[in-house]
């Protein structure tokens, strides 16, 4: 009988032994080492043990009896010190064991985040039964708090288990959404919502700075200074293959122990299996491929053919009530097509990715009933063209007659409620369409109120219109924002507020976006809408900003940038000009030019130089001029009563005041202003987005001018007597535009769309409303008035953005 | 020329973002998609030479910051009615350390899947 020694009694080696004993029970005398003082148990079921849904006994795979029955010599609780390949012995702590064949199944160890305080009592990982017991013990203390570092599979299962045991749990995740290796943003958002419903706090983009405490953990401090009290910290950020013994024995080890398709290492008598192996450059952490490896290895030991290959994997989370599934490759690309199904009311999200008539990837959340069917389609590479139209609805829809939504609507009784918000029934809508000759959705909204609140019934109302009007109804009358949605800007803005949508993934899910992550058209628009509607709450998404707004400078045709410092009201000084001249010299800036908005433009600045240029300008007291933004740009002024013999008011002072009050605010499109001190209008205020003409009687407020693609004189909004009134009026007007404007829609186009009457009604006629808009602007300025240059010049924000991430020299490239 | 150069971590690039790498043959733009796929192309739009690393990244495309040309990061081809292509470079990502390696041999982009 040959001697087989196995190092590690985990799930992979356990499956090897099972298969081996089934095929040829007498082939080997087996010795099994395990560092843990117990045999093989189902490690992936530790989560139900943690949550209390199962006991440890229930997840034991191999009992003492089983080992006895198969005459396995168990050396549990004993670590292996070395493998002596020359003498073919394994050296354990308590003595040597000779082998003919050896299996290394050392598995993996949890990755410990290298932060201060990681050794404190109460900081644990989540890997084995001892960790699980430690967590159960910690949760026994009433009111105790846990922080779980890592929002992946393991971390979330730990969090859910601890929460079920009554702890206050916070999950910290470095990336922008949970389970980012398996899920896309939309599914990550739904998962977060579900976890929060269960009382688990989730913090994304949370980087752990250090763990605080004397001997025991007391708190976790994040990079942004946030401090979270904690009695228990669970690190679940990932695993690292355990390869020290193999490496010391001189086996080929790359990132893990290198094996061939028969699971043989570089020594033909030594095999490896499980999380400690690397095959074709791939590492393994999920159980399905490990079992596959085990089968191949067991067969190989008894001389049966077989070879291991990497197959598609799928992921499910073992948290009761969170149904999610992902499999295959669900990135979008050339020749790939995605089908997205979203049902916001049920919290359902499904995305399928198809390439060459084959399903290649799937992400599902909320309803994973068809997961196995989709997974089979991915693995088998079956053609899907025949069921393309109904594929996303799952297996049960295949072969059935397609549903006709129109027939369903036509069949509704007259008193069926269509709009729940406003209590509007079917006959009221159809009646209004016929009797009042309505042809547009907006008209139906005005006359019946249907679909004018939350908007979820919009589809139904449109179907009713189509039924009633026949071909006369053209739902495409609303121009969609972009190819990712059927909704127009107006609907999107309305729904963001009505449904309290506060992040881009949330908008895309709840408004049924047709793509997974939007495009270069809709993302900047959504980012602006969310900033404007939820000031202080919404976190700006840099990656959804056009480059100019991301790096706070204007990109030029050659990839260099232009820099325009703010000069309040167009006023500068010798000190500022000297600083600008010094910057131009120091950074060899090729062009210095005056702009139409009374500023100085430094053109041709290299991206790498931007932070240093800003630092120098900041030092002279200048801030970003926002010349790059859909934002308040410039307030141009004339010299007014300060110098001019015709000046009627302090136009310079008012211009400076407006600019200092309003700088930093983001707007749907750029906003340029001017204040002229008399009707001679030297500041050219009558072609600006907002202009003021001073007269002896006071201030004439103009707006909606244009002097670009279109040329258009301003309209007069109203006249006021004092500077304070002028400021309040202008601020309220701009705030109304901020809340109503469509992204990239200049003020003159906004006015054309909404009409002068509605603007006057909001900011001129009603002092209370005006004050309301004014206050809302002031509120949003609390978080908006930060100089983006100063944030970046100090290296604090986005420091990585401005330099190449690496440099490859000629010598390195030639090697 | 087929050697792999370590250029940094996947997490050095924001999701749906890009960074660039300076090489003797000019700048190379390195992109990270929402799904963590990493692609590399020359940092020059075929239209008017715009720096693609400064564009908005969506699905596996980038929109050039200068004139909104949309370029496939996988093939380097311009999307839509335009014609033209940029050179693409092979990248691979170590699934464990998440280090990105770049090959300067300009061939079709290859992706090494991140294993869990």
TrEMBL record, chain A:
SUPFAM superfamilies from the UniProt entry: FAD/NAD(P)-binding domain (SSF51905), Nitrite and sulphite reductase 4Fe-4S domain-like (SSF56014), Nitrite/Sulfite reductase N-terminal domain-like (SSF55124)
Q: Where is the BFD-like [2Fe-2S]-binding domain?
A: 418-466, 481-531
* Any Pfam family hit: Pyr_redox_2
Where is [4Fe-4S] cluster annotated to bind? Answer: 638, 644, 678, 682
Q: Does the keyword rRNA-binding apply?
A: no
The Nitrite/Sulfite reductase ferredoxin-like domain sits at 556-620
**Cofactor binding, per record:** Binds 1 siroheme per subunit.
Q: Per the UniProt entry, what are the Gene Ontology biological process annotations, in alphabetical order?
A: nitrate assimilation
Q: Which domain of life is it from?
A: Bacteria
Q: Residue ranges of the NADH-rubredoxin oxidoreductase C-terminal domain?
A: 314-381
Xref: PROSITE patterns: NIR_SIR (PS00365)
Q: Which UniProt keywords apply?
A: 2Fe-2S, 4Fe-4S, FAD, Flavoprotein, Heme, Iron, Iron-sulfur, Metal-binding, Nitrate assimilation, Oxidoreductase
Domain FAD/NAD(P)-binding, chain residue ranges per copy: 3-277
Pathway the protein acts in: Nitrogen metabolism; nitrate reduction (assimilation)
Q: Which cofactor does it need?
A: FAD; [2Fe-2S] cluster; siroheme; [4Fe-4S] cluster
Family to which this protein belongs: Belongs to the nitrite and sulfite reductase 4Fe-4S domain family.
The protein's name: NAD(P)/FAD-dependent oxidoreductase
From TrEMBL, chain B:
Q: Single Gene Ontology BP term?
A: nitrate assimilation
Sorted alphabetically, the keyword list is: 2Fe-2S, Iron, Iron-sulfur, Metal-binding, Nitrate assimilation, Oxidoreductase
Statement: the UniProt record of this protein carries the keyword Iron-sulfur = yes
| Gene3D superfamilies for this protein | Rieske [2Fe-2S] iron-sulphur domain
Q: Name one GO molecular function term.
A: metal ion binding
Domain (Rieske) spans 4-100
CDD domains (UniProt xref): Rieske_NirD_small_Bacillus
Q: Does the keyword Iron-sulfur apply?
A: yes
- What's this protein's name? Nitrite reductase small subunit NirD
Q: Which organism is it from?
A: Jiella endophytica
What is this protein's gene name?
nirD
């Amino acid at each position: 009988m040959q001697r087989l020694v196995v190092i590690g009694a985990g799930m992979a080696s356990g499956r090897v032994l099972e298969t081996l004993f089934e095929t040829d029970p007498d082939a080997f005398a087996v010795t099994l080492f395990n560092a843990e003082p117990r045999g093989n148990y189902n490690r992936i079921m530790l989560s139900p043990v943690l949550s209390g849904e199962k006991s440890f006994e229930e997840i034991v795979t191999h009992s003492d009896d089983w080992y006895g029955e198969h005459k396995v010599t168990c050396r549990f609780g004993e670590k292996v010190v070395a493998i002596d390949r020359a003498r073919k012995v394994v050296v354990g702590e308590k003595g040597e064991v000779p082998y003919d064949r050896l299996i290394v199944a050392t598995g993996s160890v949890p990755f410990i985040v290298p932060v201060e305080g990681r050794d404190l009592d109460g900081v644990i990982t989540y890997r084995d039964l001892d960790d699980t017991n430690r967590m159960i013990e910690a949760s026994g203390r009433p009111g105790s708090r846990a922080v779980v570092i890592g929002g992946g599979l393991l971390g979330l299962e730990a969090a859910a288990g601890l929460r079920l045991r009554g702890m206050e749990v916070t999950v910290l995740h470095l990336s922008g959404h949970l389970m980012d290796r398996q899920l896309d943003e939309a599914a990550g958002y739904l998962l977060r919502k579900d976890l929060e419903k269960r009382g688990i706090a989730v913090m994304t983009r949370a980087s752990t700075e250090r763990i605080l405490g004397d001997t025991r953990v007391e708190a976790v401090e994040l990079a942004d200074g946030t401090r979270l009290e904690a009695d228990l910290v669970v690190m679940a950020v990932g695993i690292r293959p355990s390869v020290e013994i193999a490496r010391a024995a001189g086996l080929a080890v790359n990132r893990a122990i290198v094996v061939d398709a028969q699971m043989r290492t570089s020594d033909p008598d030594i095999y490896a299996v499980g999380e400690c192996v690397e095959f074709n450059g791939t590492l393994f952490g999920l159980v399905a491929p490990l079992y596959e490896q085990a089968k191949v290895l067991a067969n190989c030991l008894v001389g049966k053919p077989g070879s291991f290959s990497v197959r598609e994997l799928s992921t499910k989370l073992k948290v009761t009530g969170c149904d999610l599934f992902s499999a295959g490759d669900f990135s979008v690309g050339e020749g790939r097509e995605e089908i997205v199904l979203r049902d916001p009311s049920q919290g359902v999200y499904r995305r399928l990715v198809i390439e060459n008539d084959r399903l290649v990837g799937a992400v599902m959340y909320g309803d994973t009933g068809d997961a196995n069917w989709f997974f089979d389609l991915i693995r088998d590479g079956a053609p899907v063209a025949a069921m393309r139209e109904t594929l996303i609805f799952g297996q049960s829809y295949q072969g059935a007659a397609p549903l006709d939504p129109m027939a369903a609507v036509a069949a509704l009784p007259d008193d069926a409620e269509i709009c729940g918000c406003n209590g509007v029934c079917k006959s009221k809508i159809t009646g209004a369409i016929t009797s009042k000759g309505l042809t547009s959705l907006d008209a139906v909204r005005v006359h019946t109120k249907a679909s004018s609140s939350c908007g979820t019934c919009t589809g139904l109302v449109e179907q009713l219109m189509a039924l009633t009007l026949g071909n006369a109804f053209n739902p495409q009358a609303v121009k969609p924002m972009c190819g990712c949605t059927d909704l127009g800007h107006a609907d999107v803005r309305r729904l963001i507020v009505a449904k309290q949508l506060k992040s881009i993934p949330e908008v895309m899910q709840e408004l049924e976006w047709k793509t997974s992550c939007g495009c270069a058209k809709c993302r900047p628009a959504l980012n602006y809408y969310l900033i404007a509607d939820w000031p202080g709450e919404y976190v700006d998404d840099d990656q959804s900003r056009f480059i100019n707004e991301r790096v706070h400078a204007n990109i030029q045709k050659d990839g260099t940038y232009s820099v325009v410092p703010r000069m309040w009201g167009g006023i500068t000084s010798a000190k500022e000009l000297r600083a600008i001249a010094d910057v131009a010299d120091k950074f060899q800036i090729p062009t210095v030019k005056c702009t139409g908005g009374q500023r100085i433009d430094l053109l041709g600045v290299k991206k790498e130089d931007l932070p240093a240029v800003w630092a120098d300008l900041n030092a002279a007291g200048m801030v970003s001029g926002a010349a790059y933004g859909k934002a308040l740009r410039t307030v141009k002024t004339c010299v007014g009563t300060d110098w001019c013999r015709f000046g009627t008011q302090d136009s310079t002072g008012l211009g400076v005041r407006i600019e200092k009050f309003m700088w930093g605010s983001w707007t749907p499109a750029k906003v340029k202003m001017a204040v002229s001190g008399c009707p001679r209008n030297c500041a050219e205020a009558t072609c600006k987005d907002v202009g003021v003409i001073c007269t002896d009687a006071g201030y004439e407020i103009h707006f909606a001018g244009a002097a670009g693609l279109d040329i258009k004189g301003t309209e007069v909004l109203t006249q006021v007597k004092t500077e304070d009134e002028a400021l309040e009026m202008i601020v309220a007007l701009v705030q109304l535009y901020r809340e109503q404007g469509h992204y990239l829609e200049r003020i003159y186009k906004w006015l054309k769309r909404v009409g002068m009457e509605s603007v006057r009604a909001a900011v001129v006629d009603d002092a209370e409303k005006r004050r309301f808009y004014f206050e809302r602007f002031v509120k949003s300025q609390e978080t908006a008035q930060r100089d983006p240059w100063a944030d970046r010049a100090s290296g604090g924000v986005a420091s990585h953005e401005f330099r190449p991430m690496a440099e490859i020299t000629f010598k390195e490239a030639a090697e | 020329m087929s050697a792999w150069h370590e250029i940094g971590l996947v997490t050095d690039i924001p999701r749906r973002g890009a960074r660039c790498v300076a090489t003797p043959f000019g700048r190379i733009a390195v992109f990270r998609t929402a799904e963590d796929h990493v692609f590399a192309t020359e940092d020059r739009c075929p239209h008017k030479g715009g720096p693609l690393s400064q564009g908005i990244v969506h699905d596996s495309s980038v929109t050039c910051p200068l004139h909104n040309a949309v370029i496939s990061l996988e093939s380097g081809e311009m999307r839509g009615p335009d014609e033209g292509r940029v050179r693409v470079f092979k990248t691979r990502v170590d699934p464990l350390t998440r280090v990105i390696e770049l090959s300067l041999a300009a061939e079709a982009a290859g992706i090494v899947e991140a294993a869990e």
